Amino acid sequence: MRSLKYQVHEDFRQLKPEEVWNLLRKDNDLALVHLYNKFVDDIYHYGERITHDKELIKDCIQDIFVELWSNRKNLPEVHFLKHYLYKSLKRAIIKKLEKNRKLFEKKTLAETHDIKIVLSYESQLINFQISEQQQKKLLQSLNSLPVKQKEAITLKFLDGFSYQEVADILSISVKSAYNLIYRALALLKINLLKVISFLLAHGLF
């Protein structure tokens, strides 16, 4: 997605995203470009966890930013912009999928689509200084989780959202978000014990 980024004034880099958002609400078109550049990679990778249709993801992202500019006078005050954009993208993708008849009845995302933690997140695992083999086994453990738990735990620990934000993106209660993540961590613990045993048996740990 980096090829879709545009040049923007350096001064915007000194501002918080929410401050740039407020400039957008005041008709500053460069503010829109800056926000696009800053968030396009993150929200694109989030879109990949919803659908494998890369062109659909790109179309939805473009639609979101066109709509932001068109409705700039009526945009709400936003305190957590990344969360706002994630939720907007999820809603846009589901709407397009339904329009394309890829969804035949109204269901939650977790009931209709699996998500997969892919290479875009492996760079974060490298920070733990574990081997490539260990990374693969850890990703396998993460991807073995039930769909709802997988999405909740990736939003919380890979995207850095609060429990409230996770709940809002998934359209569930905060209590349900806590429960999903608690159960996911419990399953990961079991799976990782199996991974460690495997690595020890093969001299890889």
**What's the number of extended β-strand segments?**
0
Which range best describes the helical content: under 10%, 10-25%, 25-40%, 40-55%, 55-70% or over 70%? 55-70%
Distance between the termini: 35 Å
- As residue ranges, the low-confidence spans are 2-6, 108-112, 119-129
Overall shape: elongated
**Beta-strand content estimate:** under 5%
- The count of helical stretches stands at 10
User: Can you write the helix and strand succession as a string?
Assistant: HHHHHHHHHH
Largest sheet: none
Question: Which CATH top level class of the largest domain fits?
Answer: Mainly Alpha
How would you classify the helix and strand content by structural class? Answer: mainly alpha
Q: CATH topology of the largest domain, what is it called?
A: Rna Polymerase Sigma Factor, Chain: A
Number of domains: 2
Mean pLDDT across every amino acid position: 78
- The CATH architecture of the largest domain can be named as Orthogonal Bundle
Alpha carbon gyration radius: 19 Å
